[in-house]
Amino acid sequence: MKARLIVNADDYGYFRCVSRGILQAAQEGIVTATGIMANGPHFRECVGWLREVPALDLGVHLNLTLGTPITAQMRRHLDRWGGCFPGKFTLAGAILRGAIPLAAVAAEWRAQIERCLDAGLSLYFLNGHEHVHMLPALHRLAHALAAHYGIVQVRHTRPDRRPAWAPGPLVRDLTLRLLAWHAPGQTDAPRLLGVAVSGRLDARALARLTDGLRAGVVYELMCHPGRYDPAEIRVPALLRYHDWQTELHTLTAPGLRAQLAARGIELIGYRDLTGHTPLPSPAASPPPARAGAAYHPSAVKH
How many domains is the chain built from? Predict the structure, then answer.
């Protein structure tokens, strides 16, 4: 029995150059899945490119921290930020104090999921841009939406490797561990790798992360490959965080698939966990108010 590894590239569909790099990493390298940012300005164009890689498993990279919302309801709550999503800490604070109601988040996330379904995409998973879905209330909402739309997996962001002893990675790691403790995930969720080196996965980090993976266990390697176009990407925070080209080079290194196989690691997609392909069937109605584990923000008092 082998260790099983899903290599999941975040941020597809927002920037053309990053999206093209993700496709290259799937065609020439080891990427087996990608999360789509449905509010991206180039969504329709980038979705069309997915036909080039039919074996790539797709999910929705639920977004509340980059760009402009899809829904007018959410935009109304972002007037103080010019109708655009604020940064993750500002966003989290606004949600916690009720300045952005959960009903608006639910409507926005439904719109992001349904935009992907309306494009004819089969969806296997949900996760959150900058891990905002790990906030306890948003975690419950993400799971309720997954259940409503028949999406099997929701990423559980709990790093299982020690971070570098630097202030930024250490604080991020401790924060995510605390959130994961308050928001337990699915028992069958893949174990997440790559948080501590997120945005800067190089060959040495990849070797370290994949060393000693246990046979019979499913892992998800979070990554951010892409091509960098300075004419397209001008957000300073993204430029400080990401080294797209290095990650692309790392994940398309010659012989990498064979090296992983020789170490007892099997590359898989989410479809290998479910055994079937989900049907792209848009649902116009919102999730139920509460049925079993289902959750709807209308049931929350602010």
Answer: 1
